[in-house]
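Posting here for the record, re: guanosine-5'-diphosphate.
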Amino acid sequence: EQVSSASSDAAKDTLLGGLLPVGFDDKSCLSRYRSALYRKTSPHLPSPNLVKRLRKYEALHKRCGPNTELYNRTMQQIKSGHADGTTECSYILWISYSGLGNRILTLASAFLYALLTDRVLLVDRGSDMGDLFCEPFLETSWLLPSDFPLNPINAFSEKSPESYGNMVKNALIRDKLLPSHVYLHLAHDYGDSDKLFFCEDDQLFLEKVPWLVLRSDNYFVPSLFLIPKYEEELHQLFPQRDTAFHHLGRYLFQPTNSVWGLIARYHQAYLARADKILGIQIRVFDTGTGPFEHVLDQILSCSLRENLLPEISKNGAYVPRAGTTRSKAVLVTSLSSGYSEEIRNMYWEHPTANGETISVYQPSHEGYQQTEKQTHNMKAWAEMYLLSLSDALVTSSWSTFGYVAQGLGGLRSWILVKPENRTAPDPPCGRALSMEPCFHAPPFYDCKAKKGTDTGALVPHVVHCEDMSWGLKLV
Ligand code: GDP
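Prediction output follows.
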């Protein structure tokens, strides 16, 4: 494969500091060992403990994975509804739910929870999970077999009697018989009893349940860092706490060959030759269809003020001399095409004050969110990945799409302040405190004192997010 001279380096560490295991068949998932050729080497190495823990997890998954003898044995218990305490393997089953950015963040959270609790992570394939991601674990599968008895798996909801919240309310956890499975409702609309998941005593009960079924649309990792039982291990795994998603994400999420084709072709055609790449992720939650003037003003004022884009010279007639200027490629992702057109025109109609050449590209403009359409999400995944290859990133408030790009890329983005009343905010953007995603719906509960508390003020490494005052993030 041809890659840009800036990033082609024979000594590139294709295993990402030991994050990835050796031994995968290269052709089945081209992206796995090639990501290092497209990405700058991350300054953040995974800790030796994390590397060791991942190898141990892979062995467990192989032993307990789908259709192994140990897996089949737990099926009997699911059919009976009760656990008899004899199973060697326990599981967390992730339900495919919500937009792609949300899914990536919850799956990373579920995997970290699996590491902390010695569970095996299995994935409901939903409509497209198998088309988007390669198998991350060597010689086994993370996809739930289609003959799984709790069917359809996505029928679980906050109303299910097996939900942990309802079990607590109905005093079922004091029952002598241990259930074979418990449903964890950790979605944005969860209730106070569901939130007890984040309390140590409740974890002691859940530990004994062989199957946990999880539905979430949130990056709940920050609150795992507040459970005393897991504190020490988390510190061992992530001595630099704000790299949790950076490492877990690059370990788990390898684009399939079809998605990799979208990424690699786009990169080579439009981005590889530029001296620098600026990613701009535009997600507008306003009703109505953009482009909106105030959003464009905000993006430009942020990019100019932070020196991410050069000023234009209104009266100059500067013409670049061929082959001598610095070039910057601007990769815009947005559901609508208007923003990138305006930026492209601006740099066509006027010279830049510093002589830099600016080219503006936008891979797709799908119009609106179409979560169930297959090629739509392949493009969405390719775009998140391409953004993560940028040298600098501007992202939208509240958007998990942007969080994924920032985290995979190991970048601290400039976050566009959420506009109110259709006016451009001042200041237009602020620098992210860390590369971590924000947990949008955290619990505010002190498990010991049994009363409400500000969970963003308990420890220095879990704080409120830049873009959502009630959210929590690792720094
Ligand atoms: P969030 O809603 O911004 O937190 O991000 P999600 O990824 O969870 O959900 C938004 C969904 O809308 C994505 O999964 C895509 O399907 C679609 N979408 C939003 N913005 C873009 C974009 O810039 N490009 C593409 N291709 N799809 C987008």
